Amino acid sequence: QVQLVESGGGLVQAGGSLRLSCVVSGSGFSIRYMAWHRQVPGKQRDLVADMFTGGTTNYADSVKGRFTISRDNAKNTVYLQMNSLKPEDTAVYYCHTKLRWTGDLYEYNYWGQGTQVTVSS
């Protein structure tokens, strides 16, 4: 069983910071990819930032220079440091990972339950 548990969301004023965490619990797998997405009601879920096994990262243009994705391999945890937050960053943020089970050739997608981030003006 794999479970992704996010934390760190909340209410913050514009210009403030938050750090989201996502712990991937379970065993018998290797994490191949981790990402943060966000979604506002009535709109599609968008990629915010991602990180590949080798350390390559990508960011949405709207968050470049403000958000940083990082990972603690020993803790199977991915973080999203969000600085200089804007009201338009308000959304539910979802953690996403691709895992490869030991002995399996394929990668499987898993998602967290989401954590609300609200930025007031």
Task: Explain what the structure shows.
With 121 residues, this protein is mostly beta strands. It is built from no helices and eleven strands. The strands form two sheets. Strands 2, 4, 5, 6, 9, 10 and 11 form a seven-stranded mixed beta sheet that branches. Strand 7 and strand 8 form a beta hairpin. It is elongated and about 50 Å long. The protein starts with a strand and ends with a strand.
Summarize the structure.
With 121 residues, the protein is an all-beta fold. Helices cover 0% and strands 59% of the residues.
How are the secondary structure elements laid out?
Layout (H helix, E strand, L loop, with lengths): L2 E5 L2 E4 L4 E8 L3 E11 L6 E7 L4 E3 L7 E6 L4 E6 L8 E11 L6 E4 L3 E6 L1
Parallel strand pairs: 2-11
Antiparallel strand pairs: 1-3, 3-8, 4-5, 4-9, 5-6, 7-8, 9-10, 9-11
The assigned structural class equals: mainly beta
Shape: elongated
Distance between the termini: 41 Å
Tally of individual helices:
0
The SSE string, one letter per element, is EEEEEEEEEEE
* Contiguous uncertain segments of 5+ residues: none
What's the total count of β strands? 11
> What proportion of the residues is helical, as a percent range?
under 10%
Oligomer: single chain
What's the Cα radius of gyration? 14 Å
Task: Please state roughly what percent of the residues sit in beta strands, choosing from under 5%, 5-15%, 15-25%, 25-35%, 35-45% or over 45%.
Answer: over 45%
Mean pLDDT: 96
Characterize the main sheet.
Answer: 7 strands, mixed
